[in-house]
Structures are given as C-alpha cells and as structure tokens.
Specification:
It holds the Pfam family DUF5122. This is PKD domain containing protein. Keywords: Signal. InterPro entries: Delta_60_rpt, Quinoprotein_ADH-like_sf. 2% of the residues lie in helices and 39% in strands. Strand 25 and strand 26 form a beta hairpin. The radius of gyration is 20 Å and the shape is globular.
C-alpha cells in the first residue's frame, strides 16, 4: 500500500490513548502490508505502543533504518516512528542497557517501558521507566523501579499503570509479579495487592495482561491468585476497592502439557466490547483435552467453572500473541497450521496452512481465509490493533511476502 493510501485510511487517534483494550474493526485487515514501515535490522521486537500518531517499538535490537533508505541508525532496544509516514523520530533515541519487553502509552506525549534493563542513558531505571517522546529523556517524577526480576507486561488505564513480570519488589514495596502503580509518580497502590502464588515452574510469573472495564485478565506461571485456585489464568475485579480476585475461574490450564512447559499460557486480549477474551499458548502437541499450542475463547461474565467457547489448535507450534478486533482474532507465533486438533507436528485432517500469522473467526473459532504468511522464526511477539490497521512485531524479515524487517503493518481496506 502506498503512503497516500495509508494516510487516507488513518483517522485521528487521541494523543493520550492508553493501552487498555483493543480497537474495534468492522473488517479484516488487508493481507498487503504498507510500504512505509521502518526496518529493525537485528534482534527481535517484543512490544509496540501507539501514542497519538507515534508508534513506539521495544525489544532487543541495536540498529534500525527508514524504508527506502540505506542510512543505518543506532537505537538501543527502543525507537519511535511516525505512523502515517513511517519516518523514524530523530530525537527519540534513549539508550536502554537491556531488552524492552513491554510498552504502554502514557499521557502528555510519554511512553512507559518495562523489561530487563537497569539503566537509561546511564541513570538507574531498574526495569521500569517513563520517557518523553519529544526528546527521549526520562520523566523525572516517575520513580518506580522493579527488583528481583523483570517486567514482561504493562497496561495503563487513566491514572493507573499495571505491571506484571517475575519481580519481587516495586519501589521498595513487596509485590510478587503483579503491581498497580500511580501512572504519574510510580508509587505502589496499596489498594491493589493481589498476589500470584503456587509457581508453575521455577518462580511465579505474570506473562501477559489485558484490561476491559473493571476486569483485568492475567496469565502466567502461577496456580493461585490471593490463595484462590486460578491455574495460569484469572480475572481481577479492579473496580472494587481494594481490588479483589473475581469469581470467574477455569481449570482449562490446570493440566500439564509437557515437563518442559509447566507454564504454557502466553498472550491474551479482550474483545473491544469486553464480553470475551482469547488466550494463546505454547506447550507442545498435547493429548486430547489439553489446550497446548492453541487459541481459546472465554466469556468474561461466565459463572461457575468456565470452559472455553471454542479452541483452535496449531497441532504442535507455539502461539505468542493475539489481537481481538471484533472482525477477527489475529494470532501469531511460529505456527505452521490452524484448524489442526489432530496434528502432532503434522497437518492433521482439516488443517489449513497459516505460516507464522493467521486470523480466526471470533464466533466459529475456525480459521478465516486471511493468509498473508510470514517467515516463522521465533514468532510474532507483538500485535497492536489501531484505527488504521494492525501492527506486527517479530524476529524475521518477510511479512506478507515482502521485505519488512521485524516490524510491519496491515492496513484496513
């Protein structure tokens, strides 16, 4: 797609849009990526945020360049570019000394970054920092620092910033893998003290989070939330004070897939109206009844012990990321197939080829015809749906049968 066509497709995006929830689309995005996105020349993209009309990209990389240019720019694990033109912002070049795993849009032209870094431009910013897009400098009033582990997920909602990972303290306050912070100061919120426990694996970890209204969905390497059985997945009522674990529960992820995958949940995302959410997993080709290497839909307001509304299996390949837009459920990883419940690292009856990226019908749970393809590699680690299309971040260089190194975008037709 040309730059002119992209500009015509985009609509005004609020400057302070937060990262809570997914934008609704009435159609499936085009299978033809836009031509304007820049290229990440090494490493992997782990996270994408949109602040007004600026795309912020985080991961583990050191070099980027504009589309159509031969000039290589140094960027230490984070950079930003203009959504409409694809041009890399020259003045946003903070140096983070470790990978960025998570991003969240902030107010007033800022962005939050979380990961495994300990310094930003030489100053101590353990695993959490807030940056100005105008010049890449730190916002000095934000003082949250995570200790004892990394940050893997961030969600901002108004004056609150939710952080998940495998840390043990934030801002000197004990918080195991999950915390809610003041979005302006980074102070830990005492009204939110939900504690994941019963580790699935070597330690407790929150892998992914998503927010819809008063429900925060969390998944990861835990068996309990505040002592209540919530194997790898739970909902938290953030509308109450103090916040509390919601009555919603499922045993769908209680079984083990393989000893190598004690925790196998990965990405999750709510539908735009919050009525359901989808979880994607790793785990290896499991036996019947286990949700290994799958995408599964759950109803947000279901009562009692909940089973998935539908499950779509890859047949033995990991899915890392999911974006739910209403028109489609986009899934990404290093999968070879969808619609493959009987596959065991093979194409079983009914399997459809969807290398590295695919789309699922939100009602039927069956693969849609959309099949742009991508080089599989490790997989898609980041999706971001916005009003003009779908941004995709990964570790490979071909998307939609074109060269798009590690970052690309499918526009709405």
């Amino acid at each position: 797609m040309t730059a002119a066509a992209l500009a015509a497709a985009l609509v005004l995006i609020p400057a302070d849009a937060s990262a809570a929830g997914t934008v609704e689309h009435r159609r499936v995005v085009s299978a033809d990526p836009v031509d304007t996105t820049p290229h990440v020349l090494d490493g992997i993209v782990n996270a994408i945020a949109l602040v007004g009309g600026t795309v912020v990209v985080g991961g583990s990389f050191s070099e980027v360049r504009d589309a159509g240019s031969s000039r290589v720019l140094e960027r230490a694990n984070i950079f930003a570019y203009d959504l409409a033109t694809g041009r890399i912002l020259p003045d946003f070049a903070p140096e983070l000394d470790g990978p960025v795993n998570a991003l969240a849009a902030g107010a007033s032209g800022t962005v939050y970054a979380g990961g495994a870094f300990t310094e930003t431009d030489g100053a101590g910013t353990r695993r959490l920092v807030r940056l100005r897009l105008a010049d890449g400098t730190r916002v000095p009033g934000f003082r949250a620092q995570a200790e004892g582990g990394t940050v893997t997920s961030l969600v901002r909602s108004g004056s609150h910033l939710y952080a998940g990972g495998d840390f043990t303290r934030v801002g000197g306050v004990r918080r195991t893998a999950l915390a809610r912070l003041d979005a302006a100061t980074g102070a830990v919120d005492p009204a939110f003290s939900i504690t994941p426990g019963a580790p699935r694996g070597s330690r407790v970890k929150v892998y992914a989070m998503a927010l819809a209204g008063d429900r925060l969905a969390v998944d990861g390497g835990f068996g309990t939330l505040d002592g209540l059985s919530r194997p790898q997945l739970g909902l938290i009522d953030v509308g109450s004070s103090p916040a509390k674990v919601a009555d919603w529960r499922t045993d769908a992820y209680a079984p083990e897939c393989k000893p190598d995958f004690p925790s196998y949940v990965r990405g999750l995302d709510f539908a735009p109206d919050g009525s359901y959410f989808v979880v994607v997993t790793s785990g290896g080709a499991g036996s019947a009844g286990k949700l290994c290497d799958s995408a599964a839909r759950f109803e947000t307001r279901a009562r009692g012990t909940t089973r998935p509304t539908w499950v779509n299996y890859t047949g033995g390949d990991t899915l890392y990321s999911v974006a739910v837009t209403g028109a489609a459920v986009y899934v990404g990883g290093h999968q070879r197939w969808l619609d493959n419940p009987r596959g065991r690292d093979s194409a079983g009856p009914g399997a459809v080829s969807r290398p590295g990226i695919g789309a699922i019908h939100p009602v039927t749970g069956k693969a849609l015809r959309w099949n742009p393809t991508r080089d599989r590699g490790i997989g898609v680690k980041a999706f971001l749906a916005h009003r003009g299309g779908l941004l995709v971040g990964s570790d490979t260089t071909r998307l939609g049968r074109e060269y798009h190194a590690r970052i690309g975008m499918f526009p709405l037709p």
